[in-house]
Amino acid sequence: MPKVVFVSPGGARRELAIADGWTLMEGAVQHNVQEIAAECGGGCACATCHVFIDPAWLSKLPAPAAAEQDLLDCTAVPRQENSRLSCQLKLTPELDGLVVMLPERQT
Amino acid sequence: MTRHVIIGAGQAGLQIVESLRKEGFSGEIALIGDEASAPYQRPPLSKKYLLGQITAERLLFRAPEHYGRLGVELRLSTRVTAIDPAAHTVTLAEGSQLEWDRLALATGARVRKLGVPGAEDPRVHVLRGVEDAEALRQGLEQAARVVVIGGGFIGLEVAAIARKLGLEVKVVEAQSRVLPRVVAPLVSTFFHELHTGHGVRILLDQQVAALVPSADALTVQTQDGTVIPADLVVVGIGVLPNTELAEAAGLACDAGIVVDEFARTSHPHIVSAGDCTRHRNLLFAAPHRLESVQNAVDQAKVAASTMLDAPVPYAQVPWFWSDQYDVKLQMVGISTGHDSLVVRGVPGPDGFSVFYRSGDRVIAVDSINKPAEHMAARKLIAAGGQCDPERLADTSTDLKTLLQ
Ligand SMILES: Cc1cc2nc3c(=O)[nH]c(=O)nc-3n(C[C@H](O)[C@H](O)[C@H](O)COP(=O)(O)OP(=O)(O)OC[C@H]3O[C@@H](n4cnc5c(N)ncnc54)[C@H](O)[C@@H]3O)c2cc1C
Ligand code: FES
What we know:
The complex is a heterodimer.
Chain A: E1 3-7, E2 13-17, H1 24-30, E3 50-53, H2 55-58, H3 66-72, E4 83-85, E5 98-101
Parallel strand pairs in A: 1-5
Antiparallel strand pairs in A: 1-2, 3-4, 3-5
Chain B: E1 3-7, H1 11-22, E2 28-32, H2 66-70, E3 72-75, E4 80-84, E5 89-92, E6 97-99, E7 102-105, E8 109-111, E9 124-125, H3 130-142, E10 145-149, H4 153-164, E11 168-172, H5 185-197, E12 201-203, E13 208-213, E14 218-222, E15 227-230, E16 232-235, E17 239-241, H6 244-248, E18 257-259, E19 270-272, E20 277-279, H7 293-307, E21 319-324, E22 327-333, E23 340-344, E24 352-358, E25 361-368, H8 371-382, H9 389-393
Parallel strand pairs in B: 1-2, 1-7, 2-3, 7-19, 9-16, 10-11, 10-16, 11-12, 18-20
Antiparallel strand pairs in B: 4-5, 5-6, 8-17, 13-14, 14-15, 21-22, 22-25, 23-24, 24-25
């Protein structure tokens, strides 16, 4: 299972193993990463699963689809170049070691 | 030690538990649910799960080990059969009793049954829980002809999935349009055409009179004599709030457990949240009942605050979404009582939004494939909904700029 490091706004790091094929959001929420709200449960409808991707990993991710692009303009903490919606990112073996930063708030 | 008991381990019940802990409650918590699964999400049941894209494990809100860490006694497959408000106890199905200091009812809703002959045939499916969804998913694998009774959200989502699976699909709706109670006629028309464009046949103004079983079909008969043979029938004609426990305990109910803006029932130490409540929201004059994730989550937070004697009133804007094919409908506000509409964009694949106005205020917005407009609409309504209709309709103005 790919391991992902979540870095909270305060700098605390938490490593989680997330099953292949699951989304980053699913893995985080099931393991109680409080900084991800995911109000719509992965429906790409709420923008409350916002994360920042470590720039070193950005190019390894597929580009966001139109709906995600649109919603990224609606995050509680304004989007940056490395912003993604974690419910739209599927884990693959290549993403083992992925580092993501969590925003201050989601609503 | 203080003990709070929550009846119903669904979205609202779990949120109450999480909020109690988040706000620092350190007493005992028991979360009692009659389903076998740990709390899980229902929306994917008529979407990805039904399509076979995700497993039941991925529906879970939290990993099973989370409950131990939260310090909650999670009792699954356990039904509460009675509440004694005076003695502060609940009775469980196996006969034991549990005492509580504060009690929360998060009992949700159950599907309305189709009251016609033949409705008990095993080829008839409903969709509320994961077991229903699994049975339906397996049924669809064996079926070629599917009839969906009810053109509401669940019916239309199931119709879309069945088409994606390549099945022949007919939808029978009693009213003169699909989604009759919840959206404006032009939105109904959009969804009608979306489905017919995907090969679904929609029969409107048709009341089902009977389901007639034979060896090779279950035939749907309508009151005007139309017969539609099916291999599988899905009934999606709405839900009924689970109020029986509350009623038997003498709590005020009116097509829902009646609660105030603090999620308080007519008993000072019993709260209620989610699909089962008829509730006050400070943003609206009249009480209402809602079936949505937003309401379950936001009202549960209110209920938890009341259980902790630090009540925060319910004043959140309702929102909802539905996925059909590659179309995402997002709704915000409550459109009941609107007197005019503003349409932004052209109904079609590129997406559009419909603003429901009452006087000069926007009270609800439906957005089709326009998630950013939906998010802006949420802010607009939360801010009171005042907005120039011409600018709303003008797609060259960014909705977000209207809010500043
Ligand atoms: C197929 C489907 C698709 C949906 N899609 C969407 C969507 O896209 N967007 C959206 O916003 N909403 C959607 N919803 C609605 C949303 O899932 C519900 O509004 C939400 O689950 C309500 O949560 P709840 O906790 O109030 O009730 P429930 O989730 O119904 O939970 C109540 C629980 O209490 C249990 N219970 C009842 N009585 C007792 C008792 N006496 N003892 C013990 N346990 C008891 C029930 O079995 C149930 O497990 C959908 C619902 C379904 C069924
Ligand atoms: S969980 Fe709602 S957009 Fe990702």
